[in-house]
Every structure is written in structure tokens, then in C-alpha cells.
Amino acid sequence: MAITQNIHSVTAYDNAPFFEKALKHAVQNNFIDQVRLAELINDAATGSLQIAEYFDESTHLRQNLEVSMRRMVSLVSLYLEDTTDGELDKAAQLLKDKPFRALSRGGSQMLKALYSMPEDEHFGSSRLDTEREFLKKCLSKELSTAKYRQEFKDCERYKSQINLATLLVKKLGATVSELNDMHASTQHVIRTSLLSLAFGAKKAIASKTKFPDEATLYEIFTSMRKEWALLGDVTYSSKFIEDVPAEFQVNIKTTLQSIKNEDIPKIVNQSVSLESVLNDLKHSKYFYLHDQLNEVSRFDKALAADWFSLIGNTDASSTNEDSSLLTLFLCVAAGVARKSTLKAFEAKKAVLNIRENGLLQNEVLNLIKTAPHDDINQLMSLWDDFIDEASPYLLDSSDENLHEVMSYLTDRCNIQKAKK
User: DSSP states of 135-166 as a string?
Assistant: First the structure.
């Protein structure tokens, strides 16, 4: 760029309104003269080459240089407006005192600081973009100062949440490695840790060696319900709060109050089974370590037992078998008594009912919807796969003696063979 270029030559590159205002203000109010303006122009030209190289873009293409100039001006604008809080006199003074590339670096450092912050409140979450990709995205959408400040404020809150959650987990004597692997929500981890430290210290957690699992949560809930039945109240300890940094005190006290106001009334309500309460709260508010060796927890089994009891199946030992479930669904689809095992004549009656009245699909689906929440999708898939394959047999009127359909059902359902 030639030294003779005027202010309009510089602002023609500008897509950042604050920089344009600051530069015009600086010229009009004699903060900078033509010599200083020429220095800024030449410095900007050199800086645009460096930015193109940083992003691995050819410096021989005019289009790339124009893009680089816009990026540079965006960085300067971001830095100027943030540093001066939008005061034009202060911004004009910075344009007088600092090289254009130094102002650009200031904006770049702001974006890199944002990149270094967590982008959400979960453990183990890492940015998918590289730092270079992140900067390019921010500059392509011309991140405003107001937007930058809001994002940085959000990230600071996420960082504070992670720091508090980490501190509480360590107070339990646990590590965050598993929480990182599971991308645990810090809000849920904080709530679970506070429940354990405040309400579980004297009840269920004798040796604090790991983060609570589902069984430990259940023990704490059980103890709280028993204490309520005995004393009409649930006591807790707040001693662990004494050495917690002041910056976390409000968060801790607010969460403890929320546990007392929202969760305890549910936990001590004798009219609702404790398994149901746990199932609700563990998904909506708490976090626990899974038992990798036992995919179906005893609580899920308890809920399943409640469900099968509700739907009239007393054969608890068969609740995990697909054949028992399919037999039960077959009964519902046929409108006959619900059983998990059928005698041959009962199965034939079910088939004849279906041929006469049609499949009661909605009845089966409504039944499945009452199952434990975690099992619904699996049960839906089990039924869909079965009925798609079974329908031709169930509805085949040419199979008058029911030989084909009974052979099919015997392989997939619990059909007792007739004694000879």
C-alpha cells in the first residue's frame, strides 16, 4: 500500500464498525497525523501477509489477502472495543500508540483465551476444532465484542462448575478419570457429591474410596427414608463445607437447599416405591458410576418385577427372557389372559382370536409404554421384529390346522408341548 492512501483506503477493508469509528475519530480529532496513518496502513499490509501464512493460504492471491485483511481488522476491532469498553478517545489513543499488528495480536490472544476454556459443563469434553480452525470460524462469523464477552462468561461458569465438581469428588476420595470417560454432567456430579457428603457420610459411605454407584445412592435414599419415618426429619452434616473456597459457597448452599426442597420430599414419600423415586432422580438430577459387570442393575430388576406384577405375570424368573416377553405380548395382541407361558391349546386360542378379531397392536404398545423407561426402546424393537415376521403365520387362513403357526410360535415363545 502506498503512503498516499487516505483514510477511506483503510476503512474500505473494514467489516468491523468499531474500528472504523475509532479510526475516523482518531483522524478527525488529531490523535494521529498522515504519517502515523501511513504507518498503520503499511503495518496492516504486512500483518495481512502473516495472517494468510498462519492459515496456510497463498499470499500470491489477491482474494486471500483481502480475506486476511478483513480478519486482521476484525481482530483489531475486537481488541479495541473490549479494551476501551467502547470509548472512542481511548481507542484512538491506542491507535496512536500501538502498532496495528500489536492490536491484532491482542484480538488473537482474546480468541485463544476463549479456545482454552471449556465449551460446556461436562467432564472430559474437548473442542473438536484445532486452535487454528477455531480462530478461522470466529473470524468468518465476525464475532462481536458483546458475543465474545457472553461466550467467555459462559465458559468461565463452565470452568467454575468443573473446578467445584472436581473438588467435591476429591473430598469423596474419588478420582475424575471415570467421570471424564463418561462425560459426566458437572451439575449432576455436584448434586450427587453433595448428597453423599451431606446426607450419606454417616449413613452409607463408611469408606470414601470412589464416586457413588447406583447401589450407594439407593442406600443413601433408604437411610433418609428410614430416618424420616423415625424422626420426622432428615439430618445432614455441613462440616465438609468449612474448607471449601468462598467462591463456591453460594453454589453449594443453593444446591443443598434444592436437595432439601425438591428431592427429599420425594425420597421420604412412603406412597411411592423407593426404586421408582431412584429411577426418576438418577436420570434427571444425579450421576452415578455404572456397574460394568452387571448390565441390568438390581434396581432395574426391581422395577421390571413391579412392571411384570402390574401386567399380571408372576413368573419373575423369566422376566429377562425374550421368549417370555413375546409370549406375554402375543397374549395381549390376542386379547387373552396375560401369561408368560402358554399351553398348546391356549396358544391356538390366541391365534384364532387374532384371526377373528385382528391384532391388537395398540394394546401391546400401550403395555410397553408402562415398562421401566430404560427398557421401552428395547421392548419396542423386540415386538416390532417379532410381529413383522410372525404376522404372515398368525394371519394365514390357509393354515387351517395351525401347524405352521404353532411350529413358528413354539420356536420363539414359551409354548408347553402337549403331553403324549
Answer: HHHHHHTT--HHHHHHHHHHHHHHHHHHHHHH
- The answer to whether 278 touches 299, Cβ cutoff 8 Å, is yes
Question: Which residues make Cβ contacts (< 8 Å) with residue 98, sequence separation at least 6?
Answer: none
pLDDT tens column, 33-43: 888 888 888 88
What is the distance in angstroms between the CA of the first residue and the CA of the last residue of the chain? 103
Helix locations, 232-343, DSSP H: 249-258, 264-267, 274-284, 298-310, 322-334
By three-state DSSP, how is residue 122 classified? strand
Residue 7 has pLDDT above 80, yes or no: no
Answer yes or no: pTM beyond 0.85. Answer: no
Check if the beta carbon of residue 136 is closer than 8 Å to that of residue 144: no
Residues 123, 97: Cα–Cα separation, whole Å? 43
Is the per-residue pLDDT at 172 higher than 70? yes
Measured CA to CA, the distance from residue 196 to residue 288 in angstroms comes to 11
State residue 294's pLDDT score: 42
Residue 367, judged by CB atoms within 10 A of its CB (0-12, 13-18, 19+), counts as buried
DSSP state of 262: I
C-alpha cell at 203: 449413613
Cα 107 to Cα 101: distance, rounded to the nearest angstrom: 10
- Which phi and psi (to 5°) does residue 122 adopt? -100, 150
Could you give the 3-state DSSP secondary structure of residue 317? helix
| Contact (Cβ atoms closer than 8 angstroms) between residue 335 and residue 317 | no
What is the model's pLDDT at position 317?
Answer: 41
- CB distance 112 to 131 below 8 Å: yes
250 Cα distance to chain centroid:
24
Q: Measuring CA to CA, which residue among 368, 307, 306 is closest to residue 333?
A: 368
pLDDT at site 303: 53
Give the pLDDT of residue 39. 85
What is the number of residues in the chain? 420
